[in-house]
Every structure is written in structure tokens, then in C-alpha cells.
Specification:
By secondary structure, this protein is α+β, with helices and mostly antiparallel strands. The protein has helices at residues 2-5, 15-25, 43-50, 52-69, 93-107, 133-171, 175-191, 196-208, 219-222, 229-235, 238-248, 256-261, 282-298, 308-318, 325-334, and strands at 33-40, 75-78, 83-88, 111-112, 115-116, 119-126. It contains 15 helices and six strands. The strands form two sheets. Strands 2-3-1-6 form a four-stranded antiparallel beta sheet, sandwiched between helices. Strands 4-5 form a two-stranded antiparallel ribbon. The chain starts with a helix and ends with a helix.
């Protein structure tokens, strides 16, 4: 009986039970009957970026905030994937608004693994017997989406900032290194005669090209020495993960295909699709070169920094194999 009436993830009532309670309490004696619909802002982005396990933790925390903010007689349920709903019998607009304020206050400062909890809320009230409860629910949903247009973009931006901080920590590419890559990549783009729109796209690509490593275990990046075969296979998935993440963020969607291709090799030996030569997008080829230069110059826990002579020799050795030979010559000209 418990399982049939409760949501297994959040522990709250499920939609089926809530709909029964709505009908049971839809009587004159329970008026005013207030409804609050709640949406977790940015959950799809969190799932696409950090994985569904992290998204589930956000949902559980949202459920905790909602249930702890409500009275014992209030009915709190999970309405859908990222939505919750609260039914408030015998509750005036003023009382319901106080609950909204409590929920908003309870959310402030709440973070799940660095991700701030953000909720959009919509309130509607059945005050007269003749009002249709379905229309009241629609009104609550409309008000929720109106609130979402106000707070949703800020919530998304905060998730993106968490994403960028995590990326910088894992990739060892701090702001200084990224700016160096942008400067050299920009020079190469200008020498190639790229239009301004493509130069801007190249800057965005360089900034987030390794965004997929956010879902790769951190110990893979800090280990000294060779990775185990299974770890290397995991590492090779980061362009595909990055492609998925970029497509989920409108500001980055235009570089998603370049992210997917930035580990392809000129001779076809790269990954994930084994593209060859000019089939590899130009911006991905440029990013691969400036990325390799930055790693050679700065070093990593698993690789010592190289001298200028060693860097030039390495690029010449990899020209026509890993890197576009024309781009290698261009880089060595301007570097």
C-alpha cells in the first residue's frame, strides 16, 4: 500500500495518490483550496552535465525542502520528472503566500555538490464552489512558468559556473592557460582569414573543448604514469560527453560538433569517429594544436613540461599524423 501511494525516489506521495486526494478534498468545506506547483530549475542541464545520479540528489533535496516547509495537513507530492505539487486545504491566499516565502527562504544557500538549489513556484486558489479544479491547476502551472522566466536563466548560469569551475580543476587549464590558448588560436584564425563570427566561435570552443571531462573520475587526471586500458577507454569518451553537454546549453550548442571532433587525428587514428584530414572541422583542428601546445609548455602531473626545441620537434614529428601539417607550419611561424 505504501509503495502504491509514494514516489520511490523522493519519498513523497506520488501523482496517483495526489489526484485522488484532490478529488476527495474538492468540497465546499475545504475552501479555499490552494495549489502550488513547483519546478526544479535546470534539472535537465544538471542531468546532461553531471549525470542522473547528481540530478536525483537535487530532486531528493528539493523534496526535503518542500516537506520541511509545509504543515502536517498539507499534501506534498512528486507530480512529474522535475515537478512537485502541494495541496493546501482551507488555506487562504495570504497563508499560501507565506508558505511560498518559507520555501524560497529555505532554498537560499542550499547546494548539492556545489550546485545551488533553485525552484520555480506557481500558486492558484479555488475560492468558490463553482470553479473548476482543472482550471485552477492550469493557473498554477501558468504562474509557475511565469516565475521560471524570471529565475530560470540565473539558475542555469549558476550551474554553468559550477561546471566551468569543475572543468578548470580537473583539466589543469586555469584562466591563464585558457587565455594563452585563445590568444594563439585567435592569431592562427586571423592568419587563416576566418570571419569574425568564426573567430568568436573558436574562442568559445577553446574555452570549453574539454567540458566532457567533468564526468570523468578525477583520479584518472592526477595519476602519474600510464592509464589502465579501462581508464583510457573511459577517458576517450569525454568528447562525446562534451558534445552532449554543449547541445544542452544554448550558448554552447554551436560548438558541439567541434567538441566532438577535437581529438580526431589528421591520419584517421583519433577518436571517437576516426575522422581523417579535412573531414575534421577546421576549428577542432586548430583547438587540438593549441591544446597540445599548452600541455607541452605547462606540463601535467603525468607529463613534464618540454623545452621550446622539444616542442617544435614533437610538432614536426606529429605533423601529418596527429595534426594538420599546414596548421603545424602556421603555428610554428607565429609561436
Amino acid at each position: 500500500r505504501y509503495i502504491s501511494f509514494h514516489d520511490s525516489l523522493s519519498g513523497l506521495y506520488n501523482r496517483s495518490f495526489f489526484e485522488q486526494e484532490m478529488q476527495r478534498l474538492n468540497t465546499p468545506r475545504q475552501l479555499p483550496l490552494s495549489l502550488i506547483l513547483i519546478d526544479v530549475n535546470g534539472l535537465k542541464l544538471i542531468n546532461d552535465t553531471f549525470g542522473h545520479f547528481r540530478g536525483d540528489k537535487v530532486l531528493k533535496q528539493a523534496a526535503t525542502v518542500l516537506s520541511s516547509s509545509c504543515r502536517q495537513e498539507d499534501i506534498v507530492a512528486r507530480w512529474g520528472g522535475d515537478e512537485f505539487i502541494i495541496l493546501l486545504p482551507q488555506t487562504t491566499r495570504g497563508q499560501a503566500q507565506k508558505l511560498l516565502n518559507r520555501i524560497n527562504k529555505a532554498c537560499k544557500g542550499v547546494e548539492i555538490d556545489g550546485i545551488p538549489l533553485s525552484l520555480s513556484l506557481g500558486l492558484a486558489i479555488k475560492e468558490r464552489e463553482g470553479q473548476d479544479l482543472g482550471n485552477i491547476l492550469q493557473e498554477a502551472e501558468d504562474n509557475m512558468y511565469r516565475h521560471k522566466t524570471e529565475v530560470g536563466p540565473d539558475a542555469k548560469d549558476r550551474v554553468i559556473q559550477v561546471l566551468k569551475k569543475g572543468l578548470a580543476k580537473k583539466s589543469f587549464e586555469d584562466e591563464k592557460h585558457i587565455e594563452t590558448m585563445k590568444k594563439i588560436g585567435g592569431k592562427m584564425g586571423q592568419m587563416l582569414g576566418l570571419p569574425q563570427s568564426e573567430l568568436q566561435r573558436l574562442q568559445s570552443l577553446i574555452e570549453i573543448h574539454d567540458i566532457g571531462i567533468i564526468n570523468i573520475p578525477g583520479e584518472i587526471f592526477t595519476r602519474k604514469g600510464q592509464l589502465r586500458p579501462e581508464e583510457w577507454e573511459r577517458m576517450k569518451k569525454h568528447p562525446e560527453i562534451g558534445h552532449r553537454i554543449a547541445r544542452a546549453i544554448p550558448e554552447f550548442a554551436h560548438v558541439a560538433n567541434d567538441i566532438l571532433a577535437h581529438h580526431e587525428h589528421w591520419d584517421g587514428s583519433g577518436y571517437p569517429r576516426g575522422l581523417k584530414g579535412i573531414d575534421i572541422p577546421l576549428l577542432a583542428r586548430i583547438t587540438a594544436i593549441v591544446d597540445a601546445l599548452e600541455v607541452m609548455q605547462s606540463g601535467r602531473p603525468y607529463k613534464e613540461a618540454m623545452s621550446p626545441g622539444e616542442i617544435e620537434a614533437e610538432f614536426r614529428r606529429c605533423s601529418g599524423k596527429q595534426f594538420d601539417p599546414e596548421l603545424v607550419e602556421l603555428l610554428l611561424t607565429i609561436w
